[in-house]
Design brief:
The radius of gyration is 17 Å and the shape is globular. Helices cover 43% and strands 16% of the residues. By secondary structure, the chain is an alpha/beta fold. The strands form 2 sheets. Strands 1-4-5-6-7-8-9-10 form an 8-stranded parallel beta barrel, surrounded by 7 helices. It has a two-stranded antiparallel ribbon with strand order 2-3.
C-alpha cells in the first residue's frame, strides 16, 4: 500500500456513487429513505465501555479473513448475542470484499443491534444509500474529503436519525472531527470519535498512538479506539487508558467463538475502564 491508498479508495468510491446514481437518482433515493421506519438507535451508557464488532471479508493488511463457508448472518447473530453495541460492515468491494448486499443481510440478521456502513464515503448520497440498505450508522473518514463535505455527510446521517463514527488517524484530525460534531450539535450517541492506529502508508500498527492521546471524560462525544487489538487484554488496555469503546474486526473474524470473545472483551474492558 502506498501513500495514495486513501486517494485511490476515494476515487473508486466516487465512481461507485456515480454508477449508483445512474440507476437511482438522489431524489428517488431520498424518497425511499424517507419512507423507511426510523433506524435502530445506538445506546451508549456514560462511563461504560462498549464494543463495535466488525464484519469484513478481507483487508489489505490482513488478507482474506472470511472462510469459504463464511456465514455473515450467523456471525452477526453471534456478535449481537455477545453484547456488541453495534456491528460494523465493510461495503468496499475492491480491497475489502464487501458490498451493500452484505450490509443488508447483516441488518436483517441482527434487527435489534445497530449496523454501521464502513467504507470510504465521499458524499451524502452514500449515507442515504447506507440507510436504504438497513444501516443505522456510517463511518466517515476525516480528511478523506474536505471538512465541509464531511460535515454535510454527518448532517445527512443525523437527518436520517443515524449515528456516525468520525475516524481520525492523528490528534489534529480528532480535533477536527470534534469541531464538526460540535458545529452540528450532534448528540453523544450520534457522533462518535474514532482513532485508528494503523498507518495507511505502511500498514504498520502503532498502538502507542492510543496512549499519546488522552480521551475526554464522560459527557463528551464517545471516543473509540480502532485497530491493533488482538485479544481481550488489548481491549482492556484501551479501556484503562480512558477510551469509551473499541472497534475490533480481524480478531473476531478469526475467532472460533466470536460471541464468547465479544463477551470477554467487554468484560475485561469494563473491569479495566478508567474512572472519569
Amino acid at each position: 500500500m502506498n501513500a495514495g491508498f486513501l486517494e485511490r479508495m476515494a476515487e473508486l468510491s466516487r465512481e461507485r456513487a456515480a454508477a449508483a446514481k445512474q440507476s437511482l437518482s438522489a431524489a428517488q433515493l431520498r424518497r425511499r429513505v424517507d419512507a423507511l421506519p426510523p433506524p435502530q438507535q445506538l445506546s451508549l451508557a456514560p462511563g461504560c465501555f462498549e464494543l463495535i464488532a466488525e464484519i469484513k471479508p478481507a483487508s489489505p493488511s490482513e488478507g482474506q479473513l472470511a472462510e469459504l463457508s463464511f456465514d455473515p448472518q450467523g456471525l452477526a447473530a453471534q456478535y449481537a448475542a455477545g453484547g456488541a453495541a453495534a456491528l460494523s460492515v465493510l461495503t468496499e468491494p475492491c480491497r475489502f470484499g464487501g458490498s451493500l448486499e452484505l450490509l443488508a443481510a447483516v441488518a436483517r440478521a441482527a434487527p435489534r443491534t445497530p449496523v454501521m456502513r464502513k467504507d470510504f464515503l465521499v458524499e451524502p448520497y452514500q449515507v442515504l444509500e447506507a440507510r436504504k440498505h438497513g444501516a443505522a450508522g456510517v463511518l466517515l473518514i476525516v480528511g478523506l474529503t474536505g471538512d465541509a463535505n464531511t460535515e454535510a455527510m454527518l448532517a445527512a446521517a443525523l437527518g436520517c436519525g443515524m449515528f456516525a463514527l468520525l475516524e481520525a488517524f492523528n490528534e489534529d484530525q480528532l480535533q477536527r472531527a470534534r469541531s464538526i460534531a460540535e458545529r452540528l450539535a450532534a448528540p453523544r450517541n450520534q457522533a462518535l470519535l474514532g482513532l485508528n492506529c494503523r498507518d495507511l502508508r505502511t500498514l504498520a500498527v502503532d498502538t502507542e498512538r492510543f496512549s499519546r492521546f488522552r480521551p475526554r471524560g464522560a459527557g463528551a462525544h464517545a471516543m473509540f479506539a480502532e485497530s491493533g487489538m488482538a485479544d481481550a487484554r488489548d481491549v482492556a488496555e484501551r479501556a484503562a487508558q480512558g477510551w469509551d469503546g473499541a472497534l475490533v474486526g480481524a480478531a473476531l473474524m478469526r475467532s472460533p467463538n466470536p460471541a464468547a470473545l465479544v463477551r470477554e472483551m467487554l468484560s475485561q474492558g469494563r473491569r479495566s475502564r478508567a474512572p472519569q
